[in-house]
Amino acid sequence: MNITNRVFTTSWRKGNSFIRIVTFSTKPQANELPPFIQKQSQPNSTGSIEGRKSVIPQNYRFIYPEFLPDPKVEWRNPVREKLERMDMLDRRTKIDIPEFYVGSILAVTSSDPHAAGKISRFVGICIHRDRCGLRARFILRNVIDHQGIEVRYELYDPTIHKIEVLRLEKRLDDHLLYLRDALPEYSTVDINMEPENLDDSAEVPINDIKVVLRPRPWLERWERQNLQGVANVDQYITDKQRRQALAHEKPWEKYDMMKQYRSSIPEEEQKEIFAEVHSQLHSLELQRKRNKRKRSFVKPTKLA
Amino acid sequence: MLRTLIIDLNKLRLNPVVVTQVREKGHLTRPRLRNPYWFVRKERLARDTTVTTENKAFVKEIIKDKYGPPAIIKGIPSYDQSALIKTEQYERQPWHEKARRCGLIARKIGQYPLWLKNGERIRTTLLQVVDNHVIRYIPPHEYKPAQKPNVANLNKYGCLLVGAESVDPSTLTKEYCGLFRDSGVMPKRNLARFIISPEAAIPAGTPLNVAHFRAGDFVDVRGKTVDHGFQGVVKRHGFKGMPASHGVTKTHRRPGNIGGGGEKGRVWPGTKMPGHMGNRWRIAKGLRIWRINTKYNVMWVQGSAIPGSTNGLVYIYDTILPLRKHKTAPPFPTTFEEELEALTGPSDDIWYEDVHSFKDDTITFQPETN
């Protein structure tokens, strides 16, 4: 059992070598794995459990995190969750909701009764992604005319026409809310940006850029959040704040298995959930790939 | 009786010297508040020490023979009784505006948003009708409750006993199981009585489903609110409390002054104070049904403030709000299982006309034409 588990975790790691996405899982994170296991890892993208090959890709919980329900036990109900998933799939047949992460650059086109032409398009960097089910939502941020603009979209809102991923990448943190306190160039995106083509088989790149913050006052105590993507937190805080940040650290929480268990959906249940929706999601993915191929071929035009 | 006799004897004045004392409570006598007959002890004291596995298998077999095989019916683990229950022939009567229909027993299973066709997002709560069966109808001349419900002209209304959620009868007392004997229905975990007009009576043994209501109807949902226990004034009544610092000591979450002086030098009745919060029966009235799913017996009801916790029991009634009552005839007395297919078609879902179905195309707004 132990061995199969190890093979499983390593193969999972191979497929998804990023770590700071909100995972909703009890699995140990990749950097906690002892080195000797990493050596035996084999490039097996599907993963084998108990000798049988699972068809469901292991990275579905990162690509479709909103399909996993809220882990709070008091709020769970199998029938509700099932109905919710069915509605989500119904919506996904009408609109292509692509894979994206915090840090990716998106363009969202949506119906807006107040916009000229009744349609609006907003380009920005995804700084936050939360909630599950039909409530799933994300925040896009951009700086337009020296003014920071954020728009919060709901993933399954039927007024959204199109969600395009202009640049698919990840960052070092779960959220990029600190961009609000950073220099504006870090959240400025060209609104006429063209989508960058990324090979389908390639791993999603991690952008390890370090953001430079403006001097205090800040919206939050960033120094207490152990942020990886910030360059100069130390520059602006006082000794007292440094001491307090140290006092508020909770280094034992990573060993709190009960806490992890309560805040995540167990692996077995994840498998059940994704087994239910896998066939439809997979066919939607194939369709998306076909469309993408069509789009990437541009017929040369005659000049003059 | 005794008293009148004594008074009569006194009137005769046979022996005027004798003074008989009559000691009784007099004004304190009031009718005994008897509970309805279905208020009997439900759970049996389990003594499983002497029960062998063969015994258990035998009990299961008996239950299967008597009530049907276990089955999952509309997403609820239950027993398949359709072959065993035969309801009597029933003649429908026309609906009229004063008629009171039966209600349903449901569980609150969660909440999620729906969108209207104009792009507006609404919050809805999902209520699942859990395996409801009619247990008994008590006609008006027999229904004489000791504790009178607050219904005008009660003598004109009968009472319909409805049960929800089948349970293994070997876990229940004999008396409780006896309540279900005449209907032939599996003993139910939950019982509720609905006060109905005699025209709306439904024969015992009939399963009730969510199509008892239509999408677009308004309902009242009654439930017991979440129990918060004894709470202070900040949580219970939303008082502001007092500052955390600036010299404030020991009064951060206290109510402060609770009454004036002089003429009104007392605490007035109804003053908001700390006390027990929640665990009360509350009715959320006039909620619209946005959507109905007949496969899982689920209805999507307006709002996220339905009393009770998720997976808690609620009771659904036709609304009593005068402007939201039925204008046209609802399914009367109810929608029977045979009529379900004609109602829904292939998709199980019935949407209210204003609601955007997730299978529909993306919402677009038409530009104004000047």
Structural notes for this entry:
The complex is a heterodimer of chains A (304) and B (370). Chain A is of the alpha+beta class and 304 residues long. Chain A contains 8 helices and 7 strands. In chain A, strands 6-5-4-3-7 form a 5-stranded antiparallel beta sheet, with no helix packed on it. Chain A has a two-stranded antiparallel sheet with strand order 1-2. In chain A, 24% of the residues are buried. Mean pLDDT of chain A is 84; it is low at 1-49. The N and C termini of chain B lie far apart (89 Å). Chain B has a domain at 98-227 and 278-351: Translation factors (Elongation Factor Tu (Ef-tu), domain 3, Beta Barrel). The radius of gyration of chain B is 28 Å and the shape is globular. With 370 residues, chain B is of the alpha+beta class. In chain B, the strands form 4 sheets. Chain B has a 6-stranded antiparallel barrel with strand order 3-4-13-12-9-14. A 4-stranded antiparallel beta sheet of chain B has the order 7-6-5-8, with no helix packed on it. Chain B has 5 helices and 15 strands. Chains A and B meet through helix 4 of A and strand 3 and strand 4 of B.
Structural class of chain B: alpha+beta
**Quick one: biggest sheet of chain B?**
6 strands, antiparallel, barrel
CATH architecture of the domain at 98-227 and 278-351 in chain B: Beta Barrel
What's the multimeric state? Answer: heterodimer
Number of domains of chain A: 1
Residue fraction in strands of chain A: 15-25%
Strand order of the largest sheet of chain B: 3-4-13-12-9-14
Q: CATH homologous superfamily name of the domain at 98-227 and 278-351 in chain B?
A: Translation factors
| Basic shape of chain A | globular
Distance between the termini of chain B: 89 Å
Uncertain segments of chain B are none
Main sheet of chain A: which strands, in order across? 6-5-4-3-7
What Rg of chain A is obtained from the alpha carbons, in whole angstroms? 21 Å
Provide mean pLDDT of chain B, rounded.
90
CATH class of chain A: Mainly Beta
State the end-to-end distance of chain A.
Answer: 69 Å
CATH fold assignment of chain A: SH3 type barrels
Q: Could you give the count of β-strands of chain B?
A: 15
- Tally of contiguous helical segments of chain B: 5
What's the helical proportion of residues of chain A? 25-40%
The CATH architecture of chain A: Roll
Protein name (chain A): Large ribosomal subunit protein bL19m
InterPro entries (chain A): Ribosomal_bL19, Ribosomal_bL19_sf, Translation_prot_SH3-like_sf
GO molecular function, one term (chain A): structural constituent of ribosome
Region (Disordered) (chain A): 285-304
